[in-house]
């Protein structure tokens, strides 16, 4: 496609009324139950996330089943709606296995066309928030790494698996196919790691003589894993948008109130220009993230490019916003009790999750025929 | 005549126009006049002034039908200042007589307009302008110098702001006029730029007599009137729908694909970063367009110009390097006077040099960042020491 005149799919980049209603529901839940002090306290507790909050979000609001058709036990919504949930979760840096279980694992299972059997049952449980599942791959695996993931056997150690510590089921890609392995069974060890981002727990998973149910042969499994990672990467952009938005809003609020040299520090042009630039990046990140969500929802042929563009762009914006947030808060931004550090850690970890901007640039180069020398 | 305020009604009116004046057998000028008189020029304008008082978004319905029928358009690029800036200002502040006199020939392209705002001493600080207009009976006598005036050498009319009371603070002593460019006191000189071209002009105004009937809005309210013009200027920049790889990134991508020998790793990294940023800017523009169509205009427009200015500069800079030996050459330094700015179809050196103006024209990026910070983000305003000082007492 040396000539690429126009995208075939005309994206809808706005938010619908239903999406805004969903946002309000999620935001009021998170405001009441997961404010910054609560999130900081949670990161220092033994439980990876608040089970009651998760139940309210997953089954109360029905967020866990947004991607799942009604006949399979879900809400029959789609990626655009799930993206709105992720914007809110990003805005609150909320610890919840939404991206890993309700998006990635759910998409893997959906790609297996499950109408019954173990995949169908598991999918219905995930959609209802009764169980959570995670894909047993390193969190940094990009969509382009899906085929390489289909190697090795069920006996293995996988490191930096996100949200594994609290998951009920692991989806394990092997050379023979995709297995579902219960974390409570024998032969399964889930060892929590110390993560950079305390709001998204990572674990090392070791399988030794574990029993698993084969969900799909290697061929269809590879397609399913790729779809899971693609949706994860694409919707992660919305989480990054939420992070960046919070960082900008909070920085503007702080610099309007904080006085130095007998002026609000936000009246200094050097700072104003940095925040205005950040605003432009956030506005642009919103367009990129919405485009990715819409392309995924529509099953558009150029969804992989839309996702790569959104990831390459939004990763950088979230990190930039969080770094500016820390800097423009001055000394306060370096303290443990101010939540800025949570956003910086989440943003930096997210920029590696499902592929770094550099990995996504490689995908852009491949899909647009702009090869390296 | 029924009220044509929904899409079906607009479509019917357009089909009636096409039936009465088939484009294949109707002259361009005749068709455009008929279109104006049918209210299909700008449907959101009032009846009798080329419109129907319909929602602005419905213009797209008429445009699509007319384009499909092969009807001529009114060449908005050449008459951009008139359409984009003069017309909305005349509509907003003009008397009935002024609207009747100016809008029809403006839309038809029979009369080209230019804008006499900027001065050598009043660029981004536009309200500091010093061109004087002094009342003399029914006329105003104008003296001063303007600059950066595109189309001045072909324009019939100009929108002009001039100082009518130097004793007031700078924003309050300004009035807004329509200036006749054929007046003998108006002298237009080409202003040669770093590209070698004279795309803009300097305009010298010496004892130019403007009848008071050509004033737009009340005396002393010219700054407020000018805000309408400037708002429309920023909307018109960067508001168009562009395809993927539209604009400069497409030219560089094409060169990259066709010339493997020019590729380096450093350029590859920069190309991919800029490709992604150009695609995101395109999507941001598209999102803004969708917001406007949905009747939910956001503040994003004020940011788009910033994004496009930076992208144009970085992409054209990369292009010069990518071209290697060819990048050392320049197409033509002959002084020319183009009527429209056209980045495509020119060489990389021209694009590199011309794009330097993108962060200056229509408000410098620094001023726009201040505007975003203060009006969009609500950050405190810059300390001002010119606000309550008479213009004549300001340091210059």
Structural class determined from secondary elements of chain B: alpha+beta
Low-confidence stretches of chain B: none
- Specify the helix fraction band of chain A: 40-55%
| Oligomerization | heterodimer
Count of helices of chain B?
11
Instruction: Please give the domain count of chain B.
Output: 3
- For the secondary structure, the number of strands of chain B is 7
CATH architecture of the largest domain in chain B: Up-down Bundle
CATH topology of the largest domain in chain B: Butyryl-CoA Dehydrogenase, subunit A, domain 3
From the alpha carbons, calculate the radius of gyration of chain A and give it in angstroms: 20 Å
Structure summary, number of beta strands of chain A: 9
Instruction: Kindly report the CATH topology of the domain at 221-367 in chain A.
Output: Butyryl-CoA Dehydrogenase, subunit A, domain 3
Rg of chain B, rounded, reads 23 Å
Quote the beta fraction of chain B.
5-15%
Cα(first) to Cα(last) distance of chain B is: 58 Å
End-to-end Cα distance of chain A, whole Å, is 19 Å
Structure characterization notes:
The complex is a heterodimer of chains A (373) and B (396). Chain A is of the alpha+beta class. Chain A has a domain of 147 residues: Butyryl-CoA Dehydrogenase, subunit A, domain 3, CATH 1.20.140. Helix content of chain A is 53%, strand content 11%. Chain A has 12 helices and 9 strands. Chain A has a 4-stranded mixed β-sheet with strand order 1-3-4-7. A 3-stranded antiparallel β-sheet of chain A has the order 2-6-5, with no helix packed on it. Chain A has a two-stranded antiparallel sheet with strand order 8-9. In chain A, helix 5 runs antiparallel to helix 6. Chain A is globular. The N terminus of chain A is likely disordered. By secondary structure, chain B is an alpha+beta fold. Chain B folds into 3 domains: 62 residues, no CATH class; 129 residues, Butyryl-CoA Dehydrogenase, subunit A, domain 2 (Beta Barrel), CATH 2.40.110; 151 residues, Butyryl-CoA Dehydrogenase, subunit A, domain 3. In chain B, 40% of the residues lie in helices and 12% in strands. Chain B is built from 11 helices and 7 strands. Chain B has a 4-stranded antiparallel β-sheet, with no helix packed on it. In chain B, strands 1-4-5 form a 3-stranded mixed β-sheet. Chain B is globular and about 70 Å long. Chains A and B meet through helix 8, strand 9, helix 9, helix 10 and helix 12 of A and helix 7, helix 8, helix 9 and helix 11 of B. Chain A: This is Acyl-CoA dehydrogenase. Chain A: Its cofactor is FAD. Chain A: GO terms for molecular function: acyl-CoA dehydrogenase activity; flavin adenine dinucleotide binding.
């Amino acid at each position: 496609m040396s000539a690429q005149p126009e995208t075939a799919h005309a994206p809808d980049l706005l938010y619908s009324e239903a999406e805004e209603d969903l946002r309000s529901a999620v935001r009021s839940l998170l405001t009441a139950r997961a404010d910054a002090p609560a999130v900081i306290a949670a990161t220092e507790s033994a439980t990876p996330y608040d089970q009651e909050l998760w139940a309210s979000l997953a089954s109360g609001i029905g967020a866990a089943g947004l991607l799942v058709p009604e006949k399979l036990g879900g809400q029959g919504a789609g990626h655009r709606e799930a993206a709105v949930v992720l914007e809110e979760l990003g805005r609150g840096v909320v610890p919840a296995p939404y991206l890993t279980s309700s998006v990635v694992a759910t998409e893997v299972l959906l790609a297996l066309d499950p109408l019954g059997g173990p995949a169908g049952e598991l999918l219905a449980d995930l959609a209802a928030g009764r169980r959570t599942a995670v894909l047993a791959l390193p969190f940094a695996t990009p969509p382009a790494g899906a085929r390489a993931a289909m190697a090795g056997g069920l006996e293995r150690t996988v490191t930096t698996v996100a949200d594994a510590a609290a998951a009920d089921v692991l989806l394990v890609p092997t050379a023979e196919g995709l297995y579902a392995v219960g974390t409570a069974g024998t032969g399964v060890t889930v060892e929590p790691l110390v993560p950079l981002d305390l709001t998204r727990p990572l674990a090392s998973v070791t399988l030794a003589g574990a029993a698993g149910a084969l969900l799909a042969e290697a061929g269809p499994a590879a397609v399913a894993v790729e779809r899971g990672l693609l949706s994860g990467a694409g919707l992660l952009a919305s989480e990054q948008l939420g992070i960046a938005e919070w960082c900008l809003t909070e920085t503007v609020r702080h610099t309007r109130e904080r006085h130095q040299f007998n002026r609000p520090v936000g009246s200094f042009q050097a700072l104003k220009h940095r925040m205005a630039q950040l605003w432009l990046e956030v506005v642009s990140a919103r367009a990129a993230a919405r485009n990715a969500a819409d392309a995924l929802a529509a099953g558009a042929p150029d969804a992989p490019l839309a996702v790569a563009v959104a990831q390459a762009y939004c990763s950088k914006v979230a990190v930039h916003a969080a770094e500016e947030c820390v800097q423009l808060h001055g000394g306060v931004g370096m303290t443990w009790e101010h939540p800025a550090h949570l956003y910086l850690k989440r943003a930096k970890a997210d920029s590696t999750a499902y592929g770094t901007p550099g990995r996504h640039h490689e995908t852009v180069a491949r899909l647009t025929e702009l090869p390296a020398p | 005549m029924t009220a044509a305020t929904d899409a079906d009604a607009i479509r019917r009116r357009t089909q009636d126009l096409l039936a009465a004046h088939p484009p294949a057998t109707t002259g361009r000028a005749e068709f455009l006049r008929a279109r104006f008189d049918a209210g299909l020029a700008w449907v959101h304008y009032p009846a009798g002034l080329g419109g129907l008082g319909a929602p602005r978004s419905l213009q797209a319905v008429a445009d699509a039908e007319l384009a499909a029928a092969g009807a001529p358009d009114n060449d908005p690029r050449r008459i951009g200042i008139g359409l984009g800036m003069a017309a909305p200002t005349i509509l907003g502040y003009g008397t009935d007589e002024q609207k009747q006199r100016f809008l029809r020939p403006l839309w038809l392209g029979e009369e080209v307009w230019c804008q006499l705002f900027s001065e050598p001493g009043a660029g981004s600080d536009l309200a500091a302008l010093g061109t004087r207009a002094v009342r003399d009976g029914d006329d105003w006598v104008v003296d001063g110098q303007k600059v950066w005036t595109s189309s001045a050498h072909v324009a019939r009319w100009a929108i002009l702001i001039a100082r009518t009371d130097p004793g007031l603070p700078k924003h309050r002593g300004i009035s807004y006029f329509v200036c006749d460019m054929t007046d003998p006191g108006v002298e237009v000189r080409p202003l040669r730029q770093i590209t070698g071209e004279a795309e803009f002009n300097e305009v010298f105004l010496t004892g130019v007599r403007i009848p008071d009937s050509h004033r737009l809005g009340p005396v002393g309210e010219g700054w407020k009137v000018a805000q309408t013009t400037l708002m429309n200027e920023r909307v018109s920049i960067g508001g168009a729908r562009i395809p993927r790889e539209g604009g400069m990134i497409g030219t560089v991508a094409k060169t990259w694909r066709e010339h493997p020998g020019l590729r380096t790793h450093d350029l590859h990294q920069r190309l991919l970063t800029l490709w992604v940023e150009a695609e995101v800017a395109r999507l941001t523009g598209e999102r803004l367009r969708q917001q406007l169509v949905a009747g939910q205009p956001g503040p994003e427009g004020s940011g788009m110009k910033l994004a496009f200015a930076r992208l144009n500069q970085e992409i054209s800079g990369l292009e010069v390097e990518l071209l290697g030996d060819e990048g050392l050459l320049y197409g033509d330094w002959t002084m020319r006077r183009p009527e429209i700015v056209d980045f495509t179809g020119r060489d990389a050196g021209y694009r590199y040099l011309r794009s330097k103006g993108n962060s200056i024209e229509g408000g410098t990026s620094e001023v726009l960042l201040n505007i975003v910070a203060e009006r969009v983000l609500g950050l405190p305003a810059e300390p001002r020491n010119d606000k309550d000082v008479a213009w004549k007492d300001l340091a210059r």
